[in-house]
């Protein structure tokens, strides 16, 4: 018998997702854990997304259409319509294993757990490792210190099962004015109101990589014309995280400062691929000034950065033109 206190709402934002939404919804309806509902927020799709959704005859599925407003507003709309104790996010491009919800719910069988996290399979990426973790229960303080690690649990919304009451009690929503890392900021804000975190040893979320995915917005190699907006937002979020992490979490604050400084360094490297005009020169100067403030955090005190990015950071901060030349040589090889 399904218990209301164990029910999950799965929020799926969808925009022009006719090619992927079918597989996504089918994977959710095929869950071993059946005490859930799906709310698809159709973000003003202009393709056949609604027609694909109409093919499913399930009382678990609700479709809400809004005018095209962006993924954050779509997710916020879903949060407002959630009245179950637990909440999950799944992107319309992705799909999940049959035990996705089962393994996440296992975490809530442990006393005082406030967030449950799954591993991630990267589909379509041959050069990127899947994110698999050791089964454990850790403190929110520890997770705040580790969340920026390249092989950590990340700030993704969609590999986690959230408590709705924590979100609503603290009025947590995605910031729609931010185009990059708004999910990371939401996760950090949520963690500030938690105690214990469960991390599963199963990887049940299948993230499907596309060339135009959001992560490419801050790539050093992908030619994204809106890279300045993306890097600026990414840096802004990480600056906010520095202020959000409590003073007594010293490692967390060091790691946040190191990450923000590295983003500034990568931003410089991306700018140097463009025309060397006055505006870009001033921006590079500003970013170098910011990065240099946290040079000790990058070089020796953090626990998240491997050796290679630390070296690239130093070269960029001391001699950005040399780093630019090295980047150009690397791109030709």
TrEMBL record:
Q: Which InterPro entries match?
A: Glyco_trans_2-like, Nucleotide-diphossugar_trans
A Pfam family of the record is Glycos_transf_2
The lineage's top-level taxon is Bacteria
The UniProt record lists the Glycosyltransferase 2-like domain at 9-122
Q: What CDD domains does the annotation carry?
A: Glyco_tranf_GTA_type
Q: What is this protein called?
A: Glycosyltransferase involved in cell wall biosynthesis
Q: What organism does the UniProt record list as the source?
A: Lactobacillus colini
């Amino acid at each position: 018998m399904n218990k209301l206190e164990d029910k999950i709402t799965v929020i799926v934002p969808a925009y022009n997702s006719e090619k992927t939404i079918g597989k996504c919804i089918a994977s959710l309806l095929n869950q071993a854990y059946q005490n859930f509902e799906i709310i698809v927020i159709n973000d003003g799709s202009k393709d056949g997304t609604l027609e694909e959704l109409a093919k499913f005859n399930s009382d678990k599925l609700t479709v809400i259409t809004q005018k095209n407003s962006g993924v954050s507003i779509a997710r916020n709309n879903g949060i407002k319509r959630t009245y179950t104790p637990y909440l999950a996010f799944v992107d319309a491009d992705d799909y999940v294993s049959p035990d996705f919800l089962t393994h996440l719910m296992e975490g809530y069988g442990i006393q005082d757990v406030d967030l449950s996290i799954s591993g991630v399979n990267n589909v379509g990426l041959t050069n990127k490792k899947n994110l698999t973790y050791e089964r454990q229960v850790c403190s929110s303080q520890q997770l705040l210190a580790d969340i920026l690690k390249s092989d950590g649990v990340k700030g993704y919304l969609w590999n986690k099962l959230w408590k709705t009451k924590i979100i609503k009690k603290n009025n947590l929503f995605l910031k729609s004015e931010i185009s990059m890392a708004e999910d990371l900021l939401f996760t950090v804000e949520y963690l500030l109101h938690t105690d214990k975190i469960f991390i599963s040893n199963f990887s049940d979320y299948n993230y499907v990589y596309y060339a135009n995915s959001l992560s490419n917005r801050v790539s050093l190699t992908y030619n994204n014309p809106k890279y300045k907006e993306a890097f600026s937002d990414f840096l802004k979020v990480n600056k906010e995280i520095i202020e959000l992490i409590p003073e007594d979490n010293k490692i967390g604050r060091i790691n946040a400062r190191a990450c923000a400084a590295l983003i500034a360094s990568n931003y410089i490297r991306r700018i140097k691929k463009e025309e060397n005009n006055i505006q870009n020169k001033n921006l590079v100067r500003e970013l170098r000034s910011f990065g240099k403030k946290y040079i000790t955090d990058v070089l020796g005190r953090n626990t998240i950065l491997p050796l290679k990015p630390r070296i690239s950071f130093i070269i960029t901060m001391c001699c950005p033109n040399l780093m630019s030349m090295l980047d150009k040589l690397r791109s030709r090889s």
